[in-house]
């Protein structure tokens, strides 16, 4: 009952969108959608394999299974294996909390659900309501994050298995205790044998730096290249620590993220022909050299942070970054940006060279408060989770709809399986619970992967069971080996992971004394039933992202408008408060962009017709908003400091910009055409000819052009929208037919 960690959505056309290339958003047939989920379940990324972690976690399973098998009984050993296996699998989830805390929390949750389930397991009239409520709560746990949702689902699985426990409260307590003990053992192993401590945090920070390096390289050829802030957002999530974590975090993880944030607008400014290096000539060539050298330095810093090794920068890159007084190729703002870039890269090299030792976080001058992003402790996290769950308690929430589906499928699957003359009725709802996700693609990918993996794993394990004969000790050893292989591919290749998980279950039941002919046919049939119910539930009660795209785009537009307005207000009155407002607005803009991108990625895998936005409209609107946000980012890089010279007309433009983008967001949601009257009036009222040459006035004009591009992308009459959607569907069908994908007439689901 372990599941693969949630991985960031993306790949294929989504990656093309992030790179600025073409993408396909539009009608996807059910056949093609199934093809996508099959490919995703059978793909293994070697870079995501962690064999040492798998070995340590499998050792945890062996430590609890061996003594329980020799000293108590095979049934007791099976309970011990359940807790250790599930708690170990939870530690592979992508989370920034210590793995030992995740193992302990999972073990405690499994033990509690086991005992509570036993108390109600005697009668359907008590067990089914408890199962429905527990499954609904597990579905709502996704509001607190994917790790919480997946761990909560494992507790539902543990509750379902309680029907096989002995009919004694004392023995049920003992089984619940040994299940929780599995989490304790895994936590102790993590404590005693640490593997790449802070490794996930190092990877997140290195990925952020590498993303800025890649951006600098792309700017050499395309000064208007878009930047996907997701790696920097992930690095910021990883940078949030509890006070106890802050005391042991390596020094090298303290500063580079902030430097990457500061380097990002500087390289964009240097590459921009309007405010940086000229579009042609020696100045452009010099800017390209500096951008390439900056990318080399950032990659070197990223490698040093990821591996904990000294920084090694190519000598040629170091030579390119030398800016002396005789170097007159770059002038004005371009020269200033180049000097800023060299200074920031020097700071990055200095921080990366500080080593991997732990140290106290830096403190701001004049204050004793530590300068680190605060992550709530486990006890305070309950309050945060409660607020998140309360926010999702609405009918249109994908999390709420997932919780309703989970509760309905778990109870219905249990009832159907109990009615069938097969026994082990918990296998059907268990399969459903472990594959269901709040979105279509992941639910179907895991359902297909689980079905295929279970069939292959059961066949493999059955052959081995028949070959070795009934031997509990051999089955115990095979259980541990299967668990280790499952952990090895748990981060990638879901079907393969489920193959080894199915083999683990067969060996576990064989260790408990059940023969293969009692368990294998039942498991296959009931797993097929559970997977089919999970897929049917999403088709009957979906939470499609395609209809939500206009709303996600509107949220991004409004957030970008607030960010740009905050930048212009800082030009009007440079104060520390306005700079803080800029930072908060930037983070909100990135969150809105990430929500759009996630919705876009999911929508392109859904077998539904576009609603409100066609492929071309979505692509053009995204390009326009990326240009709008990029202009604000460039402006922020050379915004006046506190006490600097103010630009009075910026305040009026900021007010107009925020008001018009807020109204336009409402118009986009309600499928009306946006307009920019206030922005036009503010630009006309900007101070005369003298203002035309000012950077703020120039950037304001660029912002207006980006907004006009957005309006062009989304403005159509209702008749044009209907015709455009129909043409879009015909175009995608024709493209799929040309590719040989057999895109004939297909039923669409809404």
From TrEMBL:
Entry keyword Cell membrane: yes
Transmembrane segments: 58-81, 101-121, 128-152, 172-193, 403-427, 447-465, 495-512, 524-544
Basic and acidic residues bias (residue ranges): 718-732
Main location: membrane
Membrane topology label: Multi-pass membrane protein
Region (Disordered): 712-750
Boundaries of every Integral membrane bound transporter domain copy: 413-536
GO cellular component terms, semicolon-separated: plasma membrane
Superkingdom as given in the UniProt entry: Bacteria
Record has Membrane as a keyword: yes
Keywords noted in UniProt: Cell membrane, Membrane, Transmembrane, Transmembrane helix
Cellular compartments annotated: Cell membrane
Family under the similarity heading: Belongs to the YccS/YhfK family.
Name the record gives this protein: Uncharacterized membrane protein YccC
Organism of origin: Actinacidiphila paucisporea
Biological classification of the source: Bacteria, Bacillati, Actinomycetota, Actinomycetes, Kitasatosporales
